[in-house]
Target: Nucleotide-diphospho-sugar transferase domain-containing protein
Amino acid sequence: MEEKSMEEIRKTQEASASINRRYAALRGFDYLSVVAFNKVFLLNALVLDGRYDVAFYLDADALVFNFSFSPLQALNSSQLFAVCRGSSDEEDTWDVNDGVMIWNLKHARAREFSQAWLDKSVIAMLAGRNSDQYELQRLLESSDREERARLYRVYVSQDLAFMNYDGPNVKHFLRSNYTDWTGSEVSARLTMMKQVIDDGGLRDNLEDFNGLMRLFHVLR
Model:
């Protein structure tokens, strides 16, 4: 990957992290920012760690837009995870977008499922394929529709953007070309992200939050 591309990706990660970190602090959540390609390793580590009940995962090009949104709104205790469909079509509910996911880490199948996803991803990586989303889709596709309906919550149709894409709770700035990792493509998404941050008043709120945090540290 070109150096320019890496620099633009770093700027994108910093822009989204500034908002997501503030969201986590205001909601009382721990926040972790990791530069890694395969999210499945992080998920598996959180499941094995056992200290957390829920994980709210966002790619570096996604940010929380509605700070009153709670991850617990997205799924119930019987569901392993919540995710949005890859398209508005209600068929093939295995075709999901894993760039924004909410996981029930205490689910009875959390360890088994995360390990199965990790195992498939490792095999794919050794074969030169690095798409954790593709491996998740294949894992889900191997089960029937009824089992998928019981296992996880997938948002489709009119609810497709509930927690992804250009929805009311999360904004996800996707690549227009899924094979294009050039700096120009990343730069365009970074520009859109900054525009949403400014137009949504998130930057003003962020400055207020930073001021309060500085005051907190002084008083402490």
Notes: The domain at 3-219 is CATH 3.90.550 (Spore Coat Polysaccharide Biosynthesis Protein SpsA; Chain A).
